[in-house]
Design goal:
- This protein has 16 helices and 15 strands.
- It has two domains: 201 residues, Rossmann fold (3-Layer(aba) Sandwich); 185 residues, Dihydrodipicolinate Reductase, domain 2, CATH 3.30.360.10.
- The chain is an alpha/beta fold and 431 residues long.
- It starts with 9 loop residues before the first helix and ends in a 31-residue tail after the last helix.
Length: 431
């Protein structure tokens, strides 16, 4: 993750990276999620940790990936979340018979992740609020489990470093680690990136405009019976110790694509600005509703990034890549300039495909490890938040060397939660 990685050419990295290396297989034999691996009838037991909307969706994707995959355990901090997730999964006509979760394999509480991992599963889906991801992944790998790891993989530099160390251990143990940065598994996006990076269809990249400008998301309200810990965990999006702010929790998808386009090297420095203009009420915790960050890379490429969560505003989610011979629109799958092109191939569900890739790699004995890029991209988002919160230009090394660990070290249903304090640029310091 250091700038030393620039010594490898982008072309070499792209050939080695999962996002493109498995691309042909995804579009070919893996594109239609029927039997994951021809001739394979080995049953794989799946456990779900984190039963919210994304976790439930990921469990469904895992079941879609192969008729030999079965869900045998679920865990969540809240019993109602676990029950709702199972209720939803048992409605799927094609897969409901493979939701084989007995009552004694529904686990609740802060230690539910350990109980799921220790329940006899082969693969664990980690989809809790991001704060808990490093701890959960470390335990899963320690216990020898393959993992599907939702994005982002942490909320601070110590968490990112922990995940890097864990993913290195996973490689040693030959365990699969597949990231929820799903655009890497989208065939049309893979083809667009290949044309830009390997084929140089727009010449040399000069700059990238990256946007995740979207609307607002859910809020679950409050209840006088809830402790402040329960309130914050139920509304985790709005507390940066839990989510990393929306630049991490949501917009990491966009930053991930800017990194992918550059061979997943790290920037040298960044500067940004952000704040709260629309979501200023106490129920929105301590996160911002907009961020703008400019990243500078050792290659001379600049990334101009914006994200926001505001209602009744213009939305834009895409990367516009500016080159010496044209420009590319990554999510529109289109190139303009000397070599105009528009993707016309088949469409596929990238959420299913990332699970198809995961289970294929397990059954083939060639486990995928997305550790490098999922850590690098998460740190890009953490760096961006550090820049907007402090109002300072910061180097990559400054951010990576930060000792600030967000959130408590012990968890209980009480009011012992981090103080809700909105960052003020120029006053908030880099820890």
């Amino acid at each position: 993750m250091s700038s030393d990685s620039t010594n490898s050419s982008r072309r070499d990295f792209m050939k080695a990276s999962t996002g493109l290396a498995v691309g042909a297989a995804l579009v070919g034999t893996m594109a239609v999620p029927r039997a994951v691996h021809a001739g394979s009838s080995e049953k794989i037991k799946v456990g779900l940790v984190g039963c919210g909307g994304r976790g439930t969706g990921a469990a469904q994707n895992a079941l879609n990936a192969s008729p030999e995959n079965v869900l045998t355990a679920v865990g969540d901090t809240f019993a109602d979340q676990a029950a709702n997730s199972l209720r939803h999964l048992r409605r799927g006509e094609a897969t409901k018979d493979r939701v084989q979760v007995t009552e004694d394999h529904v686990f609740v509480g802060f230690d539910a992740y350990k109980q799921v991992i220790d329940s006899g599963v082969d693969v664990v889906i980690l989809a809790t609020p991001p704060h808990f991801r490093p701890q959960h992944l470390a335990y899963a790998v320690e216990k020898g489990k393959h993992t599907f790891v939702e994005k982002p993989i942490g909320v601070d530099a110590p968490g990112v470093k922990s995940v890097i160390e864990t993913c290195n251990k996973a490689k040693e143990k030959k365990l699969a680690v597949v990231s929820g940065l799903c655009w890497r598994y989208h065939p049309a996006v893979q083809e667009t990136v290949k044309r830009v990076v390997e084929d140089k269809a727009i010449g040399d990249i000069i700059a990238i405009q990256s946007c995740y400008n979207a609307g607002t998301l859910w809020h679950r309200g409050d209840n006088p019976k809830w402790s402040r810990m329960e309130y914050q965990v139920r509304n985790w999006l709005y507390f940066h110790w839990l989510s990393g702010d929306h630049i991490c929790e949501q917009a990491v998808h966009s930053l991930d694509k800017t990194a992918w386009l550059q061979g997943d090297i790290s920037p040298t420095k960044a500067v940004g600005m952000g704040g709260r203009q629309q979501r200023v009420q106490p129920e929105y915790g301590d996160i911002y509703d907009h961020h703008t960050v400019f990243y500078e890379y050792p290659t001379g490429i600049r990334v101009y990034f914006t994200c926001r969560q505001q209602s009744d505003t213009t939305t834009m989610v895409d990367e516009v890549v500016l080159g010496t011979k044209g420009k590319a629109f990554i999510l529109q799958n289109q190139i303009e300039g000397e070599k105009p092109w528009k993707y016309s191939g088949p469409g596929h569900d990238m959420y299913d495909l990332e699970h198809v890739a995961l289970f294929n790699s397990i059954r083939d004995g060639k486990p995928i490890n997305n550790g490098h890029y999922m850590a690098n991209s998460t740190m890009l988002a953490v760096m961006g938040r550090m820049c907007t919160y402090t109002g300072k230009e910061l180097t990559w090394d400054q951010c990576m060397n930060s000792q600030e660990r967000l959130g408590p070290t012990e968890y209980a249903w009480n009011d012992n939660v981090p103080a809700v304090k909105v960052a003020i640029p120029g006053r908030t310091k880099l820890a």
